[in-house]
């Protein structure tokens, strides 16, 4: 069995929670986009070349309003600013990925980042191929869901209210899975505590960036104790 196939077989089960969420989120996106008059071609192209999850939902409203490049730029930065912190934390893992590096950077979504955080436990396979398969599989789920949703939107109409809760449920499933798979729970507790504190201090519309900064500072300050905990 080739190394690539072996790594794919290891990566696929790790992405099943993401598949469940991305298929339904993609379907909701495809339906909403179709309702605005943009068919399956638009859905597939946006999912292939934008692939930004929540920003794709925002882009639907941008497509049907007067084009304002400055507002679109600022909105994109605000919605996706959290990826700056994901990218910083993945610098070491991406450093030796060679030709795969541009795609790994492009495909680093919230859920992919969560799965790749479990990479340290996979010692028997190529780290680069493992990250590539996880990233590619996750995008395939999203593209597939978008296409299915667009097709469904051309055939039936129904109330899509509440479908966006799938994303919240997906985060919970990934969090619980990581909690069960690791003995070191301090990073998760820090993340929850800092996020809750920032939610109280800054409100529901402005807490995300301060929370990410706070988590980054706390984890950086506790890097050595946490590494000792993982090795133990």
- Return the string of H and E elements: HHHHHHHHHHHHHH
The class by helix and strand makeup works out as mainly alpha
* Uncertain ranges: none
Radius of gyration: 19 Å
Structural domains: how many: 2
Average pLDDT reading: 81
Question: Largest sheet, described in full?
Answer: none
Shape: globular
The number of distinct helices, counting runs of at least 4 residues, comes to 14
How far the N terminus sits from the C terminus, by CA atoms, comes to 33 Å
Summarize the structure in short.
With 232 residues, the chain is mainly alpha-helical.
Could you explain the architecture of this structure?
The protein has 232 residues and is mainly α. The protein folds into two domains: 3-181, no CATH class; 183-232, no CATH class. It is built from 14 helices and no strands. Helix 1 packs across helix 10. The radius of gyration is 19 Å and the shape is globular. It starts with a helix and ends with a helix. The mean pLDDT is 81.
What's the helix and strand layout?
Blueprint: H1 3-14, H2 16-35, H3 40-49, H4 54-63, H5 69-80, H6 82-89, H7 91-94, H8 101-106, H9 110-116, H10 127-155, H11 165-181, H12 186-202, H13 208-221, H14 223-231
Write a concise keyword list for the protein shown above.
mainly alpha, 232 residues, globular, 2 domains, 0% strand, single chain, 14 helices
């Amino acid at each position: 069995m080739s190394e690539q196939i072996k790594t794919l077989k290891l990566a696929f089960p790790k992405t099943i929670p993401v598949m469940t969420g991305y298929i339904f989120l993609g379907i909701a996106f495809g339906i909403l986009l179709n309702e605005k008059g943009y068919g399956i071609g638009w859905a597939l192209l946006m999912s292939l070349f934008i692939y930004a999850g929540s920003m794709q939902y925002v882009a639907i409203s941008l497509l049907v309003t007067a084009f304002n490049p400055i507002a679109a730029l600022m909105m994109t930065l605000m919605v996706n600013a959290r990826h700056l912190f994901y990218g910083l934390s993945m610098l070491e893992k991406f450093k030796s990925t060679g030709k795969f590096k541009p795609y790994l950077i492009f495909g680093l979504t919230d859920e992919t980042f969560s799965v790749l955080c479990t990479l340290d436990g996979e010692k028997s396979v190529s780290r680069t191929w493992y990250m590539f398969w996880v990233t590619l599989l996750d995008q395939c789920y999203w593209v597939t869901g978008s296409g299915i949703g667009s097709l469904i939107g051309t055939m039936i109409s129904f109330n899509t209210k509440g479908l966006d809760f799938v994303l919240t449920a997906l985060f919970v499933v990934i969090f619980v899975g990581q909690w069960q798979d690791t003995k070191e729970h301090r990073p998760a507790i820090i993340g929850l505590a800092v996020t809750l504190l920032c939610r109280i201090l800054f409100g529901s519309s402005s807490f995300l960036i301060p929370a990410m900064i706070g988590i980054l500072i706390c984890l950086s300050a506790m890097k050595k104790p946490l590494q000792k905990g993982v090795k133990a």
